[in-house]
Design brief:
The complex is a heterodimer of chains A (107) and B (115). Chain A has 107 residues and is an all-beta fold. Chain A is built from no helices and nine strands. Chain B is mainly beta. Chain B has strands at residues 4-7, 10-13, 19-25, 31-37, 43-50, 56-57, 68-72, 75-80, 89-97, 103-106, 110-114. Classes of the chains: A mainly beta (107), B mainly beta (115).
Chain lengths: 107, 115
């Protein structure tokens, strides 16, 4: 898996968009970018993944730069329930979890 | 999505004893994965368990300490043997899922405290 770098923590106001950045400058051509989140006392939850095109689902949007060296996870309208640790992983198969970003959504 | 049940959800154990954690999935899966999450840390893969073969362990984890069983396609166990306080962690079971097995689904974990 390629190494990923994420800010250790971020705050976001409830109702606003949360934009979580991830750097994966050593990603190889066939490695996907995955995002998972872990709410306190629960197992990680899959959010979204992509190879090079931007992706959107019911939970979030994933924006991958053209050179694929970085990406941004967007939660369009953050709620208090989105408070969690968000993990960005660049991988072909096995998931290696880094430190993640602790997102705190505040009222 | 796969529904994963782990038992026990938490336990407090004495040093030197062993604990077996069970993972039950509501559908047949080829590969099951066991992770450890130490306090305040991220997840670390312990081993991959395929039905009918011995588990494949990651660097730093050995079968004598973490024996794994995989008797069928819906069930696996992880045993934490001869426990010490350093084994206090959350242990998580996960399985592949999605249309192309491109996602991992996780159980809610077993919170283990060793005194």
């Amino acid at each position: 898996d390629a190494k990923t770098t994420q800010p250790p923590s971020m705050d976001c106001a409830e109702g606003r968009a949360a934009n979580l950045p991830c750097n994966h400058s050593t990603i190889s051509g066939n490695e996907y970018v995955y995002w998972y989140r872990q709410i306190h006392s629960q197992g990680p939850q899959y959010i979204i993944h992509g190879l090079k095109n931007n992706e959107t689902n019911e939970m979030a949007s994933l924006i991958i730069t053209e050179d694929r060296k970085s990406s941004t996870l967007i939660l369009p309208h953050a709620t208090l329930r989105d408070t969690a640790v968000y993990y960005c992983i660049a991988t072909l198969y096995m998931l290696t979890f880094g430190g993640g970003t602790r997102l705190m959504v505040k009222p | 999505s796969a529904v994963i049940s782990q038992k026990p959800s938490r336990d407090i154990c004495q040093r030197g004893t062993s604990l077996t954690i069970q993972c039950q999935v509501d559908s047949q899966v080829t590969m099951m994965f066991w992770y450890r999450q130490q306090p305040g840390q991220s997840l670390t893969l312990i081993a991959t368990a395929n039905q009918g073969s011995e588990a494949t362990y990651e660097s730093g984890f050995v079968i004598d300490k973490f024996p794994i069983s995989r008797p069928n396609l819906t069930f696996s166990t992880l045993t934490v043997s001869n426990m010490s306080p350093e084994d206090s962690s959350i242990y998580l079971c996960s399985v592949e899922g999605g249309q192309n097995n491109e996602k991992l689904f996780f159980g809610s974990g077993t919170q283990l405290s060793v005194l």
